[in-house]
Amino acid sequence: MIPRHQTVFVTLLLTASAIMGVLLWIQLRRAHERLLAGQDSAPTEAPHVAPAEQATLLVASDADNAVQPRILSLPLPQNPEARARALLGKLLDLYAAPDAAHPVPGGASSISQVFLLPIADASGKVAPNGPELAVVNLTGAFAASHPSGLETETLTVLSISATLNANLPRVARVRFLVDGQPRATLAGHADLTRTYLTSADLGAAGGDRP
Questions:
Q1: Which domain holds residue 9?
Q2: Residue 189: which H helix or E strand, with range?
Q3: pLDDT digits (tens, 9 = 90+) for 70-129
Q4: Distance from C-alpha of 185 to C-alpha of 33, rounded to nearest angstrom
Q5: Nearest to 200 by CA among 154, 152, 163, 156
Q6: How far apart are CA 154 and CA 199, in angstroms?
Q7: What φ, ψ does residue 170 adopt, rounded to 5°?
C-alpha cells in the first residue's frame, strides 16, 4: 500500500504539471495570434523625423527653357548623401505634379541613390572639405518614361546638378547612372557619359554646359 503522504505528493505534482501545461498552451496561442496579426511584443521606438530646414531647389520651366530657384521648408537628414537624395526626390516630386512647369513622371522614387566622392587635385591629393563629385543613380523606369528632346532632357539634368550645388556647395561635378550602369543619354539626347559642372546660376539651358 502506498503511504498517504506519497499519494498526496503525486497528486499535487500531477495537478501542478497540468496547470503549467495549460498556461504554456495559452501563452503559445497568444504568441501565435500576435504573429498572425503582425504584432511584435518587443518595444519599438518612434521613427525619427528630421527637422525642417530651408532648401533651395532649382526648378526647371519648359515655358522659358530655364531653371529658377524655389525656396521650400523640407525635413532633411543630416547625412549628406541622404540629404542629397531627399532634395532630388522633392525636385522630381515637383516635376511629377499635375501642374508641373516641367512635367516628368516618376517622382522621388526615381532616385535610387546619391553617392558623394572626394575629388583629387592634379597631384592626386584630396583636400579636407574639398570639392566632391556627386554620382546620381536614376531608375530605369524614370529614364524610360522621361519625355524625349534635347531641351527637356537638358533641363532635368541641369536642374538636378544645380539643386545639389545650391544645398551642398562642395558638390562641384555630377555624373549620372541608370540602374547602376553608365548610359549614353537620358532619353535619346542629353549626354550622360559626361561629367557635369555645377553652377548656382545656370540661366537659360539652351544646350550642354562644359
A1: 1-39
A2: none
A3: 999 999 999 999 999 999 999 999 999 999 999 999 999 999 999 999 998 888 888 888
A4: 53
A5: 163
A6: 14
A7: -75, -15
Whether 159 contacts 60, CB under 8 Å: yes
| Greatest Cα pair distance in the chain | 108
Q: Say whether pTM exceeds 0.85.
A: no
Rounded Cα distance between 95 and 104, Å, is 5
Cell of 76: 532633411
Residues 127 and 181 in one domain: yes
7 in the same domain as 102: no
Model confidence pLDDT, tens digit, residues 40-56: 444 444 445 678 899 99
Within this chain, do residues 31 and 112 fall inside the same structural domain, yes or no? Answer: no
Element (H, E) at 197: strand 196-197
Q: Are residues 59 and 121 in the same domain?
A: yes
C-alpha 25 chain-centroid distance:
45
Q: Which residue has the cell 549626354?
A: 191
